[in-house]
Amino acid sequence: MASDSVPIQGAIGLPEESGRTWSETLHEWVITVDHKKLGLMYIGMALVFLVIGGIEAAIMRIQLATAHAHFVSPEVFNRMFTMHGTTMIFFVAMPVLFGFGVYLVPLMIGTRDMAFPRLNAWGFWITLFGGLLLYFSFIGGDGLYGAGNAPDVGWWAYAPLTSPAFSKGHSTDYWTIAILIAGFGSVGLAVNLVATIVTMRCPGMTAGKMPLLVWLYLVMSGMVLFTITPLTAAQLMLMVDRYLGGHFFDTQAGGSAVIWMHFFWIFGHPEVYVLIIPAFAFISEIVPVFSRKPIFGYPIMVAATVAIGFVSLSVWAHHMYTVGMASYSNAFFVLTTMAVGIPTGIKIFNWLGTMWGGKIHYRVPMMFALGFLFQFLIAGLTGIMLSAAPFNWQLGGSYFVVAHFHYVIVGGILFSLFAAFYYWYPKMTGKMLDETLGKWHFWLFAIGFHVTFDLMHIPGILGMPRRIYTYEPGRGWDQWNLLVSLGALIQTVAILCFVVNMIWSYFRGRPAGNDPWDAWTLEWAVPSPPPVYNFATIPEVLSRRPLWDAKHPEDPDWKYE
Amino acid sequence: MRIARCSGLKFHLPRLACVGLLTAHCFAAPNSTSTSIFAPNSTPADEIFGLSMFVLAVTGTIFAIVFSLLLYAAITFRKRADSDLREPLQIYGSDQLELAWTVIPVLIVIVLFMTSARVIHSVQDARRPPGTIEVTVVGHQFWWEYRYPQYGFVTANELHVPVSDPAHPTPTFLALLSADTDHSFWIPRLAGKTDLIPNHPNGTWIDPHDTGLYLGQCAQYCGTQHAKMLLRASVDSRADFDRWVKAQQQIARDETAHSPEAMEGRRVFNATACINCHAIAGTAANGRFGPDLTHLMTRETIASGIALNNAAELRRWVQNPAAIKPGSLMPSMNLTDKELDEVTAYLLTLH
Amino acid sequence: MSTQPLAITPWTLPSRGRVGMFCLIVAEAAIFTIFVVAYIFYLGKSVIGPTPQQVLEVPIFNTVCLLSSSLTIHFAERALERGQMASFKILWFLTFALGAIFLGGTALEWHRLIYTTGLTISTNLFGTTYYSLVGLHAFHVIVGLLGLGLVMVLALASKVTEEHAARVDVLSLYWHFVDAVWVVVFTVVYIIGR
Fold this sequence. Notes:
Strand order of the largest sheet of chain B: 3-2-1-5-8
CATH topology of chain C: Four Helix Bundle (Hemerythrin (Met), subunit A)
Number of domains of chain C: 1
CATH class of the largest domain in chain B: Mainly Beta
Number of helices of chain B: 9
Largest interface: A-B, 107 and 103 residues
CATH architecture of chain C: Up-down Bundle
Structural class of chain B: alpha+beta
Radius of gyration of chain C: 21 Å
Radius of gyration of chain B: 28 Å
Strand content of chain B: 15-25%
CATH topology of the largest domain in chain B: Immunoglobulin-like
Low-confidence stretches of chain B: 1-10, 24-29
Order of helices and strands of chain C: HHHHHH
CATH superfamily of chain C: Cytochrome c oxidase, subunit III, four-helix bundle
Structural class of chain C: mainly alpha
Oligomer: heterotrimer
Mean pLDDT of chain C: 93
């Protein structure tokens, strides 16, 4: 790719700074407001919490591998599932997805940083503080050998289990305050991303010419503004109950346990769309590049995502089919839940249409993307099963649900994240991740994932509820639980491959250059890693694929859009 | 370039095997410890099963079609080793195709919604025929209280209901209340689960077709011993059920005259805090915090299903509940060995 | 591509500050909505204790003050845009004063409720939801007053010029939001709820 025919100018050659001490480097990272560094810090923090959340999962799987096991006490197990869920949602999934957004969006829209760089830094540090506060619960207060340890009320913290009467000590307070604080960080990030995308796009990049990733992050951030905040409100109410003697959820004083459920799930359901939409964003960038075709049906993809944003606000009570709502209420939520499955599901067809007639290169990012497509299909279909309220009366609250949502989060979001890691790691570090180790990572993880989460549906069908620290033998659950636990072991090995790959490749990986994948969006026009100012001159674009236009001046996209 | 065979059979064998195993398992004859949702034996569970099979058929068809298309695309359109460097034809979309694959899912959703709504209404809005048995279930941390208002007695942890003849149905309607936190009543073979929420009365119903023992457990996390809040429903013939009711309606027979040890046990029971939590009809004990013990020995298990109801287990339980069920709200009263033997002897008289 | 004329009309996008503040307002509106829903849900459900009809007095004066402050801040902004610094300072101070009066009035009302009628946040469901909702709003008024106060101090030190009109505009957006929330809270608590 001859640089003089590409109007997007990369770096001005500045000499590398050398001879910096480690404390100067540390200082630079601590005070940084650069979106790229902050993006990496979000991702790094999420990876650390991923390992911790994984250990919590491993502890649970060892305990559940056999009936009536005594690996951990019920108190410890109950803390494990609470912390595992809380950690994975708030301190792994949100930060890592925000991290990629914060890193990529300014580059993809041709600007130098986010709209509010200091708010960006504040968001990171406050989220990190929230995570540390949550884990301090293990040792704070009367922790370790006393009561009032890590929270053990489940990550939904249903009332009245969280009332002072049933949750003595401060364990529930750690849950409430840590997430409250992290929630402020998330809202700050969302404000920042919306403002960046709306006000800082480079000339020519109208709304219809933004990369799909940018559109999806815009919708996701907009959703965060009214998704996280109901949880914030509910947690403020819980604090009023626990500290000021309030009665929001005090059933003894006429309060309602059900209203906590409503508030929580008004947050909780759109939240999972907040998590999946960035995963869609990665797939929407990766599948086209490796199929060598543009995304099929860009306008519909945008419209479907916006539709998901709105419709997802009306489905929350499908988590509450068993709480005794009237039949017409249940039916309403069946309808809305199935309806939101339509814009979600048709995206699979759009990705399929992108692959169709293409020339698919099966490099590691595409392998993970393909895994995502198959697995998200299945996850969506088990979701349809769960949306049918009567079917839900049997499947809900059982290991079928646990299997379903792990299928979405691990089989969907995590696979998409791995694809994103392998795809953008070269841009972020300047080195390619090793392809062989990547394939080991993929295959081991895929096998482990399927052994665990395919089989996990079965105990659910056989009547095994969730959140139990042990189970009775003779109900037919034993052998399935054992196999599920073995799959977790395989996944652990796969993650090890991934971590080794990331570390090894940083030092010994093949140099990536600007554009190792022959891709089409603006981030591939700058060096890897990008200079701190991103672009020497702010680019001007005419289509959704500016680098395609540059590489194919005889057949540019703007003729067809 | 090496082509990854991630679309090969290797990739999908685990899933195919699991489907096969699952099918085999589902259609195996259910024994009395089965809690499979695919072995229904009561109208609500039957209706749910019918809907489930329909939903599975629809989603299974969608899966087969889309899976095949993905597989086909993944294999057919891969870059071959011998292909040139030209980019394939750049297609941006197709309005007709996108319309089609939006309209068809809309139609599927309408069908699934209608069938679901029908079952929702049929189960939730069912009427009570004459002859309905009414039971009030109160969820506690971590045991089940059963009140039979039509017959005027209270029992715990083991539910007895009559079998229901489809010609003259005698279903059991269960009012669901909670004394503390959220619980959920789930016996898969009899009905879907319904939650017990304080300050929010709920209801469910069952009409078992066959006699036998039906198992389940609490399905909403309620605290430390949520896992051990088991459900046992004994579906009896009409005659057996009537006999059981009659026995439960009696106040506690005083059999301690035959056994000095039991008489001493009753004294310990009354003098220690036992009577503050437990009730024994016809005696001074009328506590409501713990299970009613009037006819304790008519039950097969204790501690909501996790231990057999015999002398050894009873003694172990009274000595230290936390040894069997750590986190149980019954405290150990630190009785001496002699007192334990006496109390156990007394409890064994409560038929 | 370098030979194509750039057919891009003047490239203007909205201002960062306005978009950011708009987003913050959406987020805050969601929080208030949940508190309002809880308030409405629990109307009439208190098991014991005073009811709204028994103890609430409609705060007409406070409301007039707060809503007028939206007018004064609007005119203050206009004055700043035109460089009329004296008018700007007077109107800005008026805005601050009206907001402070509202806050003082709320404090007085709460004093009466707590000490005369015996309604606290832990008395009953009404107490819990009332103090939480009105308190959340009052908290936002305090934050607004801090911002207004900061600008006032800077204005008195003659550091504020018409170049800052955009930033002042962003702050006044927040203040208008606080007033709009009060319209909703007032309607729900003092009109519908009684």
